[in-house]
Amino acid sequence: MMKMKPEAIAAAKAVYEIERECIAQMESFFDEEAFTKAVELLKNAERTGTSGCGHSGILCQHFAHLLCCIERPAKFISPAEAVHGGMGFLQKNDVMVFASRGGKTKELLPILAICKAKGIRVIAITENMESPLAKEADVAIKQHVNRETDKYNAQGTTSSTALAVIFHILQTALIEETDYKNEQFALIHPGGAVGERLNR
Asked: Which residues pair with 35 in a beta bridge?
């Protein structure tokens, strides 16, 4: 049987504590006013776009899917496609959700300008509340990260978990605010084990 190096085992087990600590600390940054406004924007939007780069972009795809699962039409718009016609998906009073830990991701700033010109409401999720994205957004939500899990504090690990938690908070609140019923989910989710359980 192959064995990992002791250092690898120790680092692997430390991930639990690092990410557990991050989620526990995030609660102290919970801004009820910001989350309330974000949920209200998402609730009233006919369509929602999400956009981010790298790990943030991957999590934005996850959020767009979560919104579709509660019948809030949503789409991930890649930063590259957004400035080549992709922003035609969103219209006035729709919502764009940006995720950028530093809030300065240069690929997102031209999309922000399009949103402003078209009257699209903006939700920014970032650790840097003084960043261009945060300052120009209709609502900014604080992303707290204690440290990444790798020894170099460089890979998008804990920061991805923190972003996922914020998206899960928004999704969970939206279910309550819209009175979304499990029967509705059963209709659009007949596949897999979840579909079988819902449609028994």
From this structure: none
Determine the Cα angle at 128 with ends 93 and 37, to 5°: 35
At 89, list the tokens.
């998906």
Residues in the chain: 200
| Of 150, 162, 179, 141, residue with least CA distance to 55 | 162
Tell me how far apart the alpha carbons of residues 124 and 72 are, in angstroms, rounded to a whole number: 18
Residue by residue, DSSP assigns 83-111 as: TTTGGGG--TT-EEEEE-SSS--TTTHHH
Can you read off the two tokens belonging to residue 59?
A: 């999590």
CA 18, CA 76: separation in Å to the nearest integer? 29
Name the band, by pLDDT with cuts 50, 70 and 90, for residue 181.
confident
How distant, in Å, are the alpha carbons of 21, 56, 63, 146, 149 from that of 167?
18, 11, 6, 18, 20
Assess contact for 78 and 53: CB atoms under 8 A.
Answer: no
Measured distance CA(155)–CA(64) in Å, rounded: 23
Place of tokens 């078209």: 118
Residue-wise pLDDT for 36-84, tens only, equals 999 999 999 999 999 999 999 999 999 999 999 999 999 999 999 999 9
CA-wise closest residue to 35 among 178, 166, 152: 166
Q: How far apart are the first and last CA of the chain?
A: 44
Q: How far apart are CA 146 and CA 101, in angstroms?
A: 12
